[in-house]
Amino acid sequence: MTTVKLDQVSKLYRAASRAGGLTPALRKVSFELPPGEVISLIGESGSGKTTIGKVLLRLTKPTSGTVTFDGTDITTYSGRGLREYYRHVQGVFQDPFSSYNPVYRADRVYDLVRESYFPKVGAREWAARVDQALDAVALNPGDVLGKYPHQLSGGQQQRLLIARALLLDVKVLVADEIISMLDASTRVDVLNLLVKLKRQGLAVLFITHDLSLGNYVSDQTILLRHGAIVEMGATEKVFGNPQHEYTKMLLSAVPELHRKWQHSPLGPVPVAAGAALPAAPDGAAAGAAAVTLTRASLLDELTHAEQVVKRDLRAVFGARRAAASGRSQVAVALEPPVLREFEPGHLVADPE
Amino acid sequence: MSVTVENLSVAYRSRRGDVTAVDSVSFSLADGEIMGLAGESGSGKSTLGNALVYLDPRMRAAGGKVCVDDRDLPIADNGAMRRRRMTEVSLVPQYAMSALTPTRKIGKIINDLLRSHRVADRAAVRLELRRRLELIGLGEDVLDKYAFELSGGMRQRVTIIMSTLLNPSLLIADEVTSALDVSTQRAVGEMLLEFRDRGYVKSVIAITHDLSILAQVADSIAIMYAGRLAERAATGPLVDSPLHPYTQALLASLPEVGVRHDQVTLTGIPGRPPSLANPPAGCRFRDRCPFAFDKCAQTPPFAEVRPGHLVACWKVSADHSVTARPVTEHRETADAVTGPVPSAEEQA
Question: How far apart, in whole angstroms, are the C-alpha atoms of residue B237 and residue B301?
């Protein structure tokens, strides 16, 4: 059985900015992707979900930890071995249009596959294979072959790319936000296609920030926050009985057709801004912060979260805790919250 | 009525003749109403929204009339529109994330904006600006930052603040939540509600392809298909009992939280919208419609089939033949019923 396995994978970016902060994009992430299963990776921007896809596709190297495919560490592949790896592991990305060279016809991506992987296959047989792959993604060859990318709809472009992966002997598909650019009417077709391929044994890593799409398509769900897993398990358990505060917050924000958000008006703005805002010194800010939270808790919380992600990761993950524990800042920054088993097949991280 | 649009048509010039992207669209908005405008890509929803604020050189107003606060809006006259933008109509453009110039700090961009609109009392506006920033949880320090120093959600909120700074009567919000995470999406959606409740904007047209967001923030929803309005109703009836086959198909293709592929298989809409360069006669959804019949070869009228519920479909108007009447003859009735829509709190 071909299984992709991530073991304690971490990725640390060192910011080149003047602040010189450390950004832990992944913090000791471990999970397995068995064949015939769809795993949703869900998280907000900056949660590290795309980094996991990139690590799997060897587009970026993990700082520590290993990724194995069939028991072989994928960093050991090179040359022919690497090409064989890509025969089995392929990615499709968010913006289909930028995956094509606009001056060539769209089906040139298939010619490139043939050149690298199937040079001995005759033209007629290759055409038959292409037709078969297009058929699998419910495209009519006459509609799409020989067209330029701008002549195709987003859904067609995206399905052409999935068909390209199918031409190879693909066992693992990294699908990074592949449907967020598509219209609702074509979105479902691509989702249903993933379900169909999964039933044929394909393992899919479905990366998304859309919880309802992730929920629809996946068997397992992993929620990421600041590069660490906060909750993971069978999809119906995670969504049916979310335990982590972050999961609950995300679920409460999902727009649903038949249930309205609880919109609580923000109330009067307390003062002429600026004048009475206490310049919060460290530590003494607690009181002021509490007042602000009661006024516009959700918005403030979000803004705070954004600022944390963007700027002060070092402060949150590093210096203070490093000083307290006597360990190096990097070690502390990469330390994820502890995952505990809430019920069989449902892990929840400690609050951070 | 704070906004009325009558038979508005907008065409794009092309070498092979004009492409009518918005085809005789009529609707009206009450004071304080947030109208959602939804449709597939290429349905003309963004063109409609943009045309109300800025008709770019590729576009041509091919007819129709727009009124804001009982005054004509001369959408074809760019010079005259200059004086109406920001104060009467304002736009949060699609891709607002990249709408901010990277070379100037946010505060400077806003100053430029105030100067170019000849705002007399700039100090007062700047004070109001700071109040609003604080209201939505952004610190005053964003004014001293460049766009790239802000996260996507912060940038989106800053652009909305900028577009609404001079309290426009009508705000066009084009895909303001599309590129955002769910939590940020919610924050921006609630911000629109808050700004409407506070009267920073009188009415809003929120353009998106995401119906579930509209179900949260919009008072009424208009569905656009291939340049024409297909259905328009208050949010509740439209989401709970849609009448147009296109709306029904669109809603059926949305996964809800808790629905999994092994329980329910959702279906997309087969086919693609017709090309607008040479649109087919009759109902434009005909080729994709499961209920199409002979009569669909004629263009269906956009008729009121229930109070405040307008649909352009022969099948629906046949089923509701007793109540169906062309909307133009019954404008007064329609206005009275659509009326000011209760705000979110009153409904809750």
Answer: 20
**% pLDDT > 70, chain B:** 91
- Residue B211 is encoded by which pair of tokens? 């119906």
Strands across the sheet with B309-311, in order? Answer: B89-92, B170-174, B203-208, B34-38, B220-225, B228-234, B309-311, B303-306, B325-326
What does the DSSP assignment read for B48-67? HHHHTT---TTEEEEEEEEE
DSSP state of A193: H
At a CB cut-off of 8 Å and minimum separation 6, what does A12 contact?
A22, A23, A24, A25, A63, A330, A333, A334
Among partner residues A235, A277, A309, which is closest to B151 by beta-carbon distance?
Answer: A309
Contact at CB, A212 and B259, closer than 8 angstroms? yes
List of chain A residues whose C-beta atoms are within 8 Å of the C-beta of residue B187 = 298-299, 302
Q: Which residue of A has its CA nearest to B240?
A: A258
Relative orientation angle of helices A108-117 and A154-167, to the nearest 10 degrees: 10
Q: How many Å apart are CA B220 and CA A259, to the nearest integer?
A: 16
Edge-to-edge strand list for the sheet holding B3-12: B19-29, B3-12, B59-68, B71-72
Q: At what angle do helices B245-252 and A184-199 cross, to 10 degrees?
A: 40
Q: What is the pLDDT of residues B127-153, one digit of tens each?
A: 999 989 988 878 888 899 988 888 788
